[in-house]
Specification:
Layout: H1 2-26, E1 45-47, H2 49-53, E2 58-63, E3 67-77, E4 86-92, H3 94-104, E5 109-110, E6 116-118, E7 122-125, E8 131-139, E9 151-160, E10 169-176
Parallel strand pairs: 2-10, 5-9
Antiparallel strand pairs: 1-3, 3-8, 4-7, 4-9, 6-8, 9-10
């Protein structure tokens, strides 16, 4: 019996000591070091999250038959949510589309305004929240399905109550699929 207790104690120490070593050596990763960045003093700004994920480029979407909706989100970016509302005005930006075509050798065509409707372009992100959106409804039956035409619906943040980030141009590539 005494031999079993010694054996169990030996096994416990052979497992416990390496575990303690790992625990204390890994915990050093949690300490602040010279490469720690303090974001607590960064100010708030607004952006289009989908534009940020796609570097202000074309985001292709294929819609089926019928009427389809698409939210264009505006994000209030900050270390913590604000205690006041943030306003933003979103607009259709033909100048950005033209500049994009010229700079990239593309020939995207502005989606005719008769092919979609949108909720208000004047957005308010309530205090304590991060997002608001323009809901775009595409009338798929009106969109020309000619494969030689590439339609784009270009959005931009025209103005906002907080600074506007560089991710403020969203170009939705609209195609009609099966």
């Amino acid at each position: 019996m005494e031999k079993n207790i010694k054996s169990i104690t030996k096994v416990r120490w052979t497992v416990l000591l390496p575990m303690l070593f790992i625990l204390f050596s890994v915990s050093s990763c949690l300490k602040n070091g010279p490469y720690n960045i303090d974001f607590s003093n960064v100010g708030a700004s607004v952006d289009l999250p989908l534009a940020a994920a796609n570097a202000n480029g074309v985001v292709p979407f294929t819609f089926g038959t019928g009427s389809n909706t698409f939210p264009v989100y505006v994000n209030m970016a900050s270390p913590a949510v604000l205690s006041k509302a943030t306003t933003a005005v979103v607009a259709i930006d033909t100048a950005y589309l033209n500049a994009y075509n010229a700079n990239n050798g593309t020939s995207y065509t502005l989606l005719p305004d008769s092919d979609y409707t949108a909720t208000s372009f004047n957005l308010t992100i309530p205090a304590g929240q991060r997002l608001d959106s323009v809901i775009v409804t595409f009338n798929i039956s009106k969109i020309d399905t000619d494969p030689s035409v590439s339609y784009i619906l270009p959005f931009t943040i025209a103005s906002a109550s907080e600074p506007i980030e560089q991710w403020n141009h969203l170009m939705i590539g609209v195609t009609v699929g099966p």
